[in-house]
Structures are given as C-alpha cells and as structure tokens.
Amino acid sequence: MTGKSSTKKSEPRVAILMSVYNGGKYLDQQLQSIFGQTIGSDQIAIYVRDDGSSDCTAEILEKWKDRFPRNFFLERGKNVGAAQSFWKLLNKNIEAEYFAFSDQDDVWYPDKLERALVFLESNKKDVPMLYYSNARLVDTDLNDMGADATPKGQSLSAFKILAGISALGCTMVFNRETKKLAENSSLQAIEMHDKSLLLLTYLAGCVLYDDRPGLAYRQHGDNVVGMNVRGTRKLWARLRRTYKRWFCSKAIRLSSQAEELLELLDEDITEEQKSVLQDFV
User: Which band of pLDDT confidence, cut at 50, 70 and 90, is reported for residue 239?
Assistant: First the structure.
C-alpha cells in the first residue's frame, strides 16, 4: 500500500468535440482560443478525432496533448469525411455536463463558452437543449470582413433546416439530453452532423439563439463549409438554389433523413412538423 488516495476525477463541465483533417495551418490558433476560455481550462475536456490527416496536424495535436494530458484526448482514424467523423465523436461514451462542436480553423472569443452556459442554464429544462450563436466573418489572416455569418432576425423552422438554412455547428453548445437523443436516434442518412443534431433538437427539444457572434469564422479556400459576405444578405435566394439543386439531383440522402426522423419522432412532434418532413420524403 502506498497510502495514495484514489479520488475519482470529476467530469468536465464542457466536452469539446473536434474533428480535424489537414488542419495544421490554423490549428494552433484554434486550440489556443479554446484553452483560453474564461470558464477556465480545468472546466474543459477536448476530444479530437484526426480524420486521416497527412500534414503536420498529428505533431501539433501531440504537442497540445502533452501540454494538457488530463483533458486532451486524441484518436486517429481513416478518412470518413467531416459529417461522419463528428458523428463518431458524438456517439462516443463521454461524460460531461455540456458538449460543444469545434472546427479546426476558427478563433473562439474568450467568453464563447461562458455566454453559452449562461443562456442554457437560465433556460434550463429537462429536455434536449441546443444553443447556437452568430459568428463574425474574417479572412485567412483574421481581418474582419464586415459582416456576420447569420442574417439579423433569422428564425428557424424544420423546413429551413432541411433546406440548408440553419446554424453553424462550430457555435453549438448542447446538453446531455441532446447527446443522448443523437445516440438513440441511430440516424444513417447524415448530411452534416450539425444540421442533423439541430433538426433533432428543434423537433424534440429546445433551441436557443444568441445573435452576438461567439467566434471569428475564418473564410479560406479549404473550408468544408464556408460563407461569403454577399451570401449572408441573400437568404431566400440561397434557399431557392438549394431546393433546385437537391430536387433536380434527386437528393436521396435528404429524403432518407426526413423518413428516419418521421419514424423516430412520430409521437413527439406536431402534425405540422410531420407535414414538413413528409414533403421531403
């Protein structure tokens, strides 16, 4: 016997889920902004899945893992794409009070998580809850581009979410019930992880929106999903283009997702919501 006490490590307040792929160029800045959050690095655990990177990403991640060995968890896998990689993280057995998605190339404002927790805890309910915020568009060098990512006064509906007008996953923070909802859904037709989680929570729980930007949303040629300043002012034009693209190409994945949601949430959603989903089947 050594006499050492065996105290159980308390769970983090926020578990951050990050999928990376060849993110070496901007990854240090993103991780610095995460561990510089005002809630304190001891309140954060970060779970990173390297989706088959071939650049210097692995070395950068190992450096941060060495720096924060108690709250930095790293796994490497074959390349499955951003949506499936994030979904794998979402379905891992991770204990935390709240969860957040993170991209590899943004910069979080220092109070991003603190502000999200204030929103969630001041509206606390025993249902799936998801917070998302606006974001400020910046260029590759973090110069302000003069616009936010989300138009002022945007409102959500199941129709808009399915049609692609939704929230940025990198701004999302959500509770245990939302994670459990995703785990229990067993969705196969995942178009994007954030859109799927947003739609699930919108239909079965509560979604909160903060119009104040929580991060600098970097725009560059390697974005998996990006925006442009002009596009933020043309919401409905984008909606029409998206509709045309999906239906002209017989978007089987979208139809399958709507069908899965109808089956999963049949007893938990309104007739109006069912009607919207049925329009996409």
Answer: very low
Give the separation between CA 61 and CA 71, rounded to whole angstroms. Answer: 13
Cα–Cα distance for residue pair 253/117, rounded to 1 Å: 33
Checking if the pLDDT of 231 tops 50, the result is no
Q: Which two tokens stand for residue 263?
A: 């089956």
What pLDDT was estimated at residue 174? Answer: 98
**CA dist., res. 277 & res. 143, Å (int):** 40
Strand 107-108 to strand 206-218: parallel, antiparallel, or no bridges (unpaired)? antiparallel
pTM for the predicted model, two decimal places: 0.82
What average pLDDT does the segment 83-112 reach?
96
pLDDT in the model for residue 250:
40
| Predicted confidence (pLDDT) per residue in 207-216, tens digit | 999 999 999 9
Spatial separation of the C-alpha atoms in residues 144 and 61, rounded to whole Å: 28
Cα angle, residue 209 at apex, residues 135 and 102 outer, rounded to 5°? 50
What pLDDT band is residue 278 in, cutting at 50, 70 and 90? confident
Q: For tokens 């606006």, what's the residue?
A: 134
| Nearest CA among 70, 93, 65 for reference residue 10 | 70
